[in-house]
Amino acid sequence: QWGLDTAWIGQQLYHYDQVESTQDIVHQMAKQGKPHGTVVIADEQVKGKGRMAREWHSPQGKGIWMSILLRPPLPPVQAPQITLLTATVLAEMVAAESTLDPQIKWPNDILVNHKKVSGILTEMQAEQDRIQYIVLGIGMNVNQDAVDLPPAIAHKASSLKEESGMEWNIQRTIQSILRTFETTYDQFIDKGFEQVKAKWEHYGYRIGERVTISTMRDTWEATLIGIESDGALRAKRDYGKVEKLYSAEIHWGEG
Ligand code: BTN
Fold first, then answer.
1. Which of 47, 111, 114, 170 has the greatest count of CB atoms below 10 A from its CB?
2. What would you give as a GO molecular function for this chain, any one (predicted)?
3. Do the Cβ atoms of 111 and 206 come closer than 8 Å?
4. Does residue 110 line the site of ligand 1, with CB under 6 A?
């Protein structure tokens, strides 16, 4: 019933009503030897996982809760590029299917009108200098109304419906993501990261603006410049030094 016109992604596609987390299912499938491009989708997750051990609220029928198994022929240091690539695919989809103006907050949150509508969780299994597999988790708030969003995050999270005023067809939206993902991924494997980097910077949030950056060591003001080919964030200190950041929190305004 999915009728995907793709070459490799979703050739094996598993659709469940309810799961704990699609991430865990794909980890199991990876260990059973399921192929590159295997996709698991759920209508509802009761233990959805976000980054940094956070919860990801995944109510029944309201969003895209999906994990993709990838077996890229790459070293582990390139895994962050796949996350950034995925963010560009999601931003492109939103831009193509609506009049919304999506932005990517480094490294990989999709924002609309400054609110998060989508997040990506990349989990990797590596063996020495090769990626064994990646479980790429995509969570997208699609048809939630304001009341469906957890109150604790309602000020900074939203859904495509809330921002666009229209109900989205979830299956069509997934098909559109998978199609664009396949093309973009193939291009990346063939030609490298440069095109992805350009697209990422096109959608990049607060690029060119002054922000406050906190790392484990200190907090300072800087202007965001863009990303490095390895996925690091580039930020320029007020006295001119350019820093590469692999892990940091970005703040602005009073937030
Ligand atoms: C984030 O913290 O921004 C990442 C959220 C990722 C959520 C998705 S939903 C599908 C997959 N299964 C999970 O349990 N998490 C990811």
1. 111
2. ATP binding
3. no
4. no
